[in-house]
Amino acid sequence: MKAMILAAGRGQRMMPLTAELPKPMLKVQGKPLIEHHIERLKTAGITDFIINLAWQGDKIRAYFGDGSRLGVHIEYSQEPEQGLETAGGIIQALPLLGEQFIVINGDIFTDYDVSSLLHIHLDAGEAHIVLVENPAHNPNGDFTLRHLSADSPKYTFSGISRFHQQFFAGITAGTHRLGPLLKSKLAEHVVSTELYIGNWDDIGTPERLAQLNELLIEQQKTH
């Protein structure tokens, strides 16, 4: 099983922190967000990674190299400077990924146990996504749980998922957003869902990054 970490976003809302640094390289507890993901995935037994690059991607490549420093193997999928959006980036990287693979947004911070994704059964063309309770910046959520009716409460997509590569079959290379694709595939009942009740943060603004680091410092003091 390989994992793809999405790191090609421009990070406009994180300015000025992302003026010369890709968003997933911003630090939480003294290390880049991507490094936290690699460590958690490695603990789960995943050691092969694909990282897509666009804005300031050379900073990521220079920091991680081939991954050997962390005991993993990293390959890179270079995109145009403006990126290809999430689905477009995954589609470009498909030749580097296996039949099934895990995808994680590089700009989130969570204690979700990614090893649980290894035990999910997906048939050809299917996907599984992890939802979380709605944060203040996304009060209306994104998707309902699969087993509930369409008018049930919506939850926020965590940016954590597992795909069968045929989920993207028939989509031409180029710029494609993942959200609309997931929504249409949910309606076709080929996307399974789970709701994670635990620590999860979308590092969307400098203020949220600062708040997260402050919270983690306080938690360390109490333990």
UniProtKB/TrEMBL annotation:
Top-rank taxon, per record: Bacteria
Domain Nucleotidyl transferase: 2-136
Keyword annotations of the record: Nucleotidyltransferase, Transferase
InterPro entries: GlmU-like, MurU, NTP_transferase_dom, Nucleotide-diphossugar_trans
CDD domains reported in the protein's UniProt record: NTP_transferase_like_1
PANTHER family cross-referenced by the UniProt entry: N-ACETYLMURAMATE ALPHA-1-PHOSPHATE URIDYLYLTRANSFERASE, NUCLEOTIDYL TRANSFERASE
Name under which the protein is recorded: Nucleotidyltransferase family protein
